[in-house]
Each structure stands twice: as structure tokens, then as C-alpha cells.
Amino acid sequence: MKIWHVSDTHTLHDRLTLPEGVDVVVHSGDASNRRDPLLNEAELRKFLWWFAALPVKHKLFVPGNHDTSLESRLVRPKEIEGLGITLLVDDGVTIDGVNFWGSPWVPRYGDWSWMVKRETIGRKWEHIPGNTDVLITHGPPFGALDSTYSRSNSYELVGCRALQKWVARNEPSYHLFGHVHSTKDIRNAGTRTIGGLRTVFSNGSVCDDGVMNDTTSRGNILEVASRR
């Protein structure tokens, strides 16, 4: 099974080119950009039409904090499903024997969608089945492709510690996310492993902070063994 993982396209989706031979395309959130749900709706719908038109059998979408018109229900889940897109909000799907699970939640900062306090976000991860093969979240776990600069310009890791604990305990084959972009001197986009874990981490963000008018990555290609 060949997976194309992209994230954080922020209305630049049509600058991407579908790789050959993809069986499953995963978008892990922030397809749109504006905070106001009324303005966000048109952006998200344009993305969904593009996503639906991709000649790939399986299309999975986990929303991100910028996808405000979905959380506010201006864009409804039934509409997305009607386009042939599988929307995963604390939900899963099995494709060729491979178990996928998607969740949009990120630790709260500012006033965006799908945010929960860091102190309580671990309750969201309790819903993830232990037999998940490919975990899709909008945000990263702590310590995996989550490096950035704070508002005071200090280097920090901003991933979710509770999510990192779940991944370390259950070790899915892959963990796909975005949310934390690369910067001019930090590369988060891409894949990596962390010593002692079999999980491959994939940050699919295609835009860099400060370069939100162009794509700087084309997403990641992942190979997963089908079980059928």
C-alpha cells in the first residue's frame, strides 16, 4: 500500500502534483487558512473539490485548527463523505487490513478550532484503539518533528507529551501529522524514527513558516504492507 501524506496546504493544494501509484492519500489538516468560519468556508470547499477529484481510491482527511468552518458546521461531515472523502474525527477506517485512526485535536494556543488544554488532552487519546497501524493526528507528539521558535524567539519542542506517551506505549507502524511547519533553519517536514521505537513519524506540512505563499515540500510517500 502506497500512502501520500500531505498536511498544512493552507489553500496551496493545487500546487501539488499527485505521485504515481498512490493507493491512499492522507491530508492531516489545515487545508484552509482564515480564522473567521464564514471566510474559511470558501477556502475549505475549494480544497475539498480538489481532494475529491484526485484519482486515488482512498482519501482520508483529518481537520486542523485552521479548518474552522468544519468545526462550526458551515461545512458538514455528510457533505465531505458525499464527495467520496473519509473524514476522521476520533474515528477509524480499515483499508486492505490496515487500521487507520484520525483525530484533529491539538494543545490549546490562541483561539482556533479543535483545541484542548494540555492538561486534559490526554483524554482524547484514550479513544485511539491499541491495534491502530497508521495514526493520523493534526499535531505532532513531543519530540518528533515538532521543533520551532517561541514568540520570544527561543528554540522549543511544542508537540503533545500525552500523545507521545500513547505512541510510545502502542507503537503504531506510522504516525502522520503536520501543524508544526519547518522554518528557514529547522526542517520538520519529512519522516524520521526515534531511538527505541518502531514507529515512523511523518510531518507532511508543505509550507514553511514565513513562506506561506508557496510550497516548500511535496509531502511524504510511505509504504505499508497490506494484510490481504
Structure characterization notes:
The protein has 228 residues and is an alpha/beta fold. Helix content is 18%, strand content 25%. The strands form four sheets. It has a six-stranded mixed beta sheet, with no helix packed on it. It is globular and about 40 Å long. The mean pLDDT is 95.
Descriptive tags:
18% helix; five-stranded mixed β-sheet; Purple Acid Phosphatase, chain A, domain 2; 228 residues; alpha/beta
**From N to C, what is the helix and strand string?**
EEHEHHEEEEEHEEEHEEEE
For the biggest β-sheet, the strand order reads 5-6-9-12-14-13
Label the overall shape: globular
Radius of gyration: 16 Å
Count of the separate structural domains = 1
User: Class in CATH?
Assistant: Alpha Beta
In which range does the helix fraction lie?
A: 10-25%
- N-to-C terminal Cα separation, in Å? 11 Å
CATH-level-2 architecture: 4-Layer Sandwich
> Helix/strand/pairing class, anyone?
alpha/beta
Count of discrete alpha- or pi-helical segments spanning 4 or more residues: 5
How many β strands by DSSP? 15
Write the topology of this structure.
Elements: E1 2-6, E2 24-27, H1 37-53, E3 58-61, H2 68-71, H3 77-82, E4 86-87, E5 91-95, E6 98-103, E7 106-107, E8 115-116, H4 122-125, E9 134-137, E10 147-149, E11 155-157, H5 161-170, E12 174-177, E13 190-193, E14 200-203, E15 220-223
Parallel strand pairs: 1-2, 2-3, 3-4, 6-9, 7-8, 9-12, 12-14
Antiparallel strand pairs: 1-15, 5-6, 10-11, 13-14
